């Protein structure tokens, strides 16, 4: 407890913790965000990591820091620290700098999907137990509902969603992915599905429009997952549900560079806390173990 309190008792380290509560960043990114020298940042990061406030994952020459290390005491006071850091004098400036770094990553992710739209389905089948989790996901889609699929990719789920739903709206920020989805729908002779170009943090939808939102293998691309979940809550009608499928936390760092992933999957507890903060207090999560070299996947149903 003393180590955690000592580590936090410094204005610069508090700023660092506040920033890392918003996402995972490298030393280089943190240097740019806080506008401080690398050796100073590294020294503070070392103190916070040794106290169990932060954890670090190495990826080749890069190290990504995140809030939450091995200290149970920090886990217990985490939300109070998060609230307290809102009053830091540099808060507005630091958040603007975080937003600039996240925007740069989002731009790279969009570039990746625009470039690889044609190969995406093959990439997914190699890495993920697609047929197992799709089946679980589709079984949770309510019949006769208005369903919004966010980050629809090449639209592989759309025909099955359309078979259950009253209305289906698909959204993606990659024009190339949307083009692939349009091609798929045309080939299947499926009309009546609305496809829209849009950002998951600013969905091109009015409030309360859908009874069900589907987010399938998309959240690990989010620069700010909490903002995405809150935006989804906005477009869901009261009583609506979010069906979220994503990677369980893993250690394969190469996905950041090669697949434009921003998160190495998620812990069940982490997702539950974010969902609850976004207005989804009811969360049920099933873990599907990956076979044949596939990743483990979490299938989550969240509701209010
Ligand atoms: C890993 S693919 C998954 C596609 C599809 N859901 C599937 O499982 O095959 C992620 C998709 O999310 C989209 N995406 C990533 N970031 C996004 C954002 N910020 N806003 C909207 N779509 C996004 C990508 O363009 C891509 O089509």
Quick overview:
The protein has 13 helices and 10 strands.
What does this protein look like?
The protein is α/β, with parallel strands linked by helices and 304 residues long. It folds into 2 domains: 2-89, Arc Repressor Mutant, subunit A (Orthogonal Bundle), CATH 1.10.10.10; 117-303, Vaccinia Virus protein VP39 (Rossmann fold, 3-Layer(aba) Sandwich), CATH 3.40.50. 47% of the residues lie in helices and 20% in strands. It contains 13 helices and 10 strands. It has helices at 2-8, 11-20, 27-34, 38-50, 72-85, 91-116, 120-127, 130-139, 158-164, 175-187, 225-235, 254-259, 268-277; strands spanning 25-26, 54-59, 62-67, 146-150, 167-172, 194-197, 210-216, 236-247, 282-288, 297-303. It has a 7-stranded mixed β-sheet, with helices on both faces. Strands 1-3-2 form a 3-stranded antiparallel β-sheet. The longest helix has 26 residues, at 91-116. It is globular, with a radius of gyration of 20 Å. The model has no long low-confidence stretch (mean pLDDT 92). Bound molecules: S-adenosylmethionine. Residues 106, 109, 113, 124, 151-153, 156, 172-174, 177, 199-200, 216-218, 221 line the site of S-adenosylmethionine.
Bound molecules: S-adenosylmethionine
Lateral strand order in the biggest sheet: 6-5-4-7-8-10-9
**What's the count of strands?**
10
- The mean pLDDT is 92
| Largest pleated sheet | 7 strands, mixed
Helix content: 40-55%
Number of domains: 2
Oligomer: single chain
CATH superfamily of the largest domain: Vaccinia Virus protein VP39
Tell me, what's the shape? globular
Return the string of H and E elements.
HHEHHEEHHHHEHEHEEHEHHEE
Number of helices: 13
User: CA-to-CA gap between the ends?
Assistant: 35 Å
Q: Using the coordinates shown, work out and report the CATH topology of the largest domain.
A: Rossmann fold
Low-pLDDT windows of residues: none
CATH class of the largest domain: Alpha Beta
User: Which structural class do the helices and strands define?
Assistant: alpha/beta
CATH architecture call of the largest domain: 3-Layer(aba) Sandwich
């Amino acid at each position: 407890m003393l180590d955690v309190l000592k580590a936090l008792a410094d204005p610069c380290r508090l700023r660092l913790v506040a920033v890392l509560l918003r996402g995972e960043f490298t030393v280089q990114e943190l240097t740019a965000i806080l506008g401080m020298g690398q050796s100073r940042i590294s020294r503070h990061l070392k103190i916070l990591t040794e106290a169990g406030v932060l954890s670090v994952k190495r990826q080749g020459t890069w190290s990504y820091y995140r809030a939450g290390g091995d200290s149970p005491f920090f886990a217990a006071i985490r939300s109070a620290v998060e609230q307290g850091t809102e009053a830091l004098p540099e808060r507005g400036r630091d958040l603007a700098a975080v937003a600039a770094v996240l925007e740069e990553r989002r731009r790279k992710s969009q570039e990746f999907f625009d470039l690889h739209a044609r190969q995406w389905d093959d990439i997914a089948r190699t890495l993920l137990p697609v047929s197992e989790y799709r089946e679980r996901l589709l079984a949770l889609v309510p019949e006769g509902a208005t369903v919004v699929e966010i980050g629809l990719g090449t639209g592989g789920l759309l025909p099955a969603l359309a078979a259950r739903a009253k209305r289906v709206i698909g959204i993606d920020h990659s024009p190339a992915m949307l083009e692939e989805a349009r091609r798929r729908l045309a080939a299947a002779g499926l009309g009546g599905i609305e496809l829209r170009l849009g950002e998951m943090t600013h969905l091109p939808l009015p409030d309360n429009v859908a009874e069900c939102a589907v987010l399938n293998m998309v959240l690990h691309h989010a620069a700010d997952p909490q903002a995405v979940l809150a935006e989804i809550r906005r477009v869901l009608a009261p009583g609506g549900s979010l069906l979220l499928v994503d990677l369980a936390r893993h250690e394969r760092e190469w996905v950041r560079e090669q697949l434009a992933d921003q998160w190495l999957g998620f812990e069940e507890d982490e997702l539950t806390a974010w969902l609850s903060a976004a207005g989804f207090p009811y969360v049920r999560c099933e873990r599907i173990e990956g076979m044949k070299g596939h990743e483990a996947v979490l299938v989550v149903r969240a509701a209010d």
